[in-house]
Amino acid sequence: MSSSITARKEPDVVSESESFAGHPAGLRTLFFTELWERFSYYGMRAILMLYMVAPAAEGGLGFDIKQAGFIYGMYTMLVYMGAIPGGFVADRLLGARLSVLVGGVIIACGHFALAFPQLPSFYFGLVLIIVGTGLLKPNISAMVGSLYGPGDQRRDSGFSIFYMGINIGGFIAPLVCGYLAQSGEFKKMLMSAGLRPEGSWHWGFAAAGVGMVLGLIQYLVYRRHLCEVGLRPQKTTGLTAESKTPLTRQEWLRVAAIMVFFAFTIIFWAVYEQAGTSLNLFVDRLTRNELFGWQYPSSWFQSLNAIYVILLAPVFSVLWIKLGGRQPSSPAKFTIGLLFVGLGIAVMVPASLLAAHGKVSAIWLVLVYFLQVIGEMCLSPVGLSTVTKLAPGKLVGLMMGVWFLAASLGNMLAGCLGGFFDDKDPHLLVMLFGSMAAVAIVAAGLLALLTPSVRKLMGTVH
Ligand code: PHE
To answer: What is the pTM of this model?
Structure first.
């Protein structure tokens, strides 16, 4: 996942007529592969928690919420932690291109394992998705980076387009998988076909697998557009750096700055990723999921973040360009990110108080996610590019791994915190959401105080 970010031989040999929105044609291949991979990831994730806590009579696993939250937390933690060995395997053995292919095949097998109702195949499926995603996710991001030469101005814009692909997948997936898993209509269809309606969850999981297969077909058909990118393992740089030259004092300071961002990013994801756990359960159990008299599946709310990203990403990219030199520094953007994620979850406090008197309007969640995505736009894409700028050349891969590790630990905390959810105890919910809001907002305040020192650590990087 590493060196290919910094090292690129020649510009693309594919003709301009085959370019993708003014970018190398290989970006299209990676864009659609990642779109379908994220479709499979978020489609499955939208129903995972709900499937685990659903009673056996409804086809679920009948786990209690704590146990489900723990498994969810472990799973999402390991999925992103896999980026570290996954990047290593690409650098040393397979090269990024083959790692993405092998990873995708393993992911698809994982989702198809979940399509079977037995408990062992459930756990086996989770393990396969963890291994596959570790191989695919970091290496496909690194391949995006290596489509561009070192001075190519289009790199950041290429990453923004790629981030859109992620979210288009994340938007459609809960609609498709959630509909199959939860809707009464699909259950009726199953019944009229002579199949068990409680098996609907597994059709949702299978759909995730089909999405990954589509991504793989596309990846193979358009692989020639990738030219040389990711073809060979890189043995000398990146995560596997064996260079003996020690880091300079300035490089050490920059690594220290990354570590500060790392710590605050964990808090960000722990709160933000409540989307898949406590907020998902809140929507399922305490919200009126009705539009003009029609009951929609609760998991559809999992699409909201993605649609907000699709709408807001262009706004933010224009905003940053307009502000130019006057735009906030990276630590200041991180501060704003933490503040907004805190404000978002704070909205759940009055929503939970109201829920004591019966189901609440879905508008609350519409507002929560809106605030949280503003936070995401200030932190997530900014973080990725800041890490690549701050990391000493030979440590780019390792530092990318650190970035994924923050997401990984944040997701684990999100699962464990979400495990405290109890729809019968609104006061507990007020405490739960209130303390998450407090931690995020206090962390934002702390980072604001630290900003001048962090800027010093960053040296000439903005
Ligand atoms: N939406 C992002 C994605 O799916 C979330 C994420 C950020 C995941 C950072 C991993 C690391 O790619």
So the answer is: 0.88
